[in-house]
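(Fold this chain)
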Amino acid sequence: MKARYRLIRRGIRGGAFYSVDTKTGRRTSLGTANPDEAAQIIEAKNIAERQPVLNLQIAKAYLAGTDSGLTTRTWRQAMETLMEGKQGANRERWSRVATDRALAPLLPRTIVDTPGELMLKVLQSGTVSTNVFLRRLHNFCLDMNWLAWPLVPKRQWPAVRYKDKRAITWEEHCKIIEREKNPERKAFYQLAWHVGASQSDLAHLQAEDVDWQARIICFFRMKTRWRGLQPPQIRFGKEVEAILATLPKSGPLFPYLITVKEKYRATEFRQRCMGLAIEGVTLHSYRYAWAERAKTAGYPERFAQLALGHNSKAVHRAYARKAQVTLPPLEEYEAKIVQFSAAQAAAQDESTEAAHAVSA
């Protein structure tokens, strides 16, 4: 291995010694005119430079004995391997991640030769999505033993901070419905307001998901169907009944929208909002609106969790964190409980007297 630093002397006799960096061409005074001292300093500098590189080469030689592709595997190949285990929309999402401009300097690099500084630079130049998916890719490589240690320690990863989202208001929803001329999209937005389902789940609803006798809409969430969770069973009222009556009685409830990708459905909705000067809302805002309405109305949290398709209380509380709730006085609730208990006791006494009268 070629030495990085070489020794020079300015002047023929008694001149000071300098080290020259062969990579950068920079000269640095060694602060001595003694040839032996200067030679020792240069040797120490070269050993310090050579040892980390040598250690890395030795580590690669040992690791290559167990994994022949270790010295050539790139981040792009790791992402392709990760994508092989994905399906449907999740696979499409990873395909879009592969085209992220912030990841361009990283993907062709060999995994074991990647410095942590490059990872941090990618994270700084990327978006929230870059942070989320690069973390998953990094952890995947660690789990596969393609990385001997984390390039970026867990505590040093930038925090994931999503943009603040809000619910769509009733007034905004009414403006959109009033202006919408397409009957299928109009019914889609109306049902989103009443049901609170995600846009993909709503677009894939089938007529067979509606039980007219029990007045229930039951469907598996596309996002969590593989987890074996209980599907939400949402009982509907007269307003939803009127909307469903205008939709097909068999097959998809939304024959056109089920064929449209979610990003195009979102674009169509955004175009309508722009035409009405409505800002800060997306189709997902209907779920926030449903959760906030449920919390404001005192809807039991466990029911709201089932309707939204979540098991975690923290998720629902995040959805409804902006709901304005006025807490009633405790004495009113206590008075209602006393009145209810008295009514139950009176009803029990009446049923007992009626039973005695019949037996007599």
Observations:
- Strands lie at 5-9, 17-21, 27-29, 210-211, 216-218, 233-235.
- The chain has four domains: 5-64, 75-156, 170-319, 327-360.
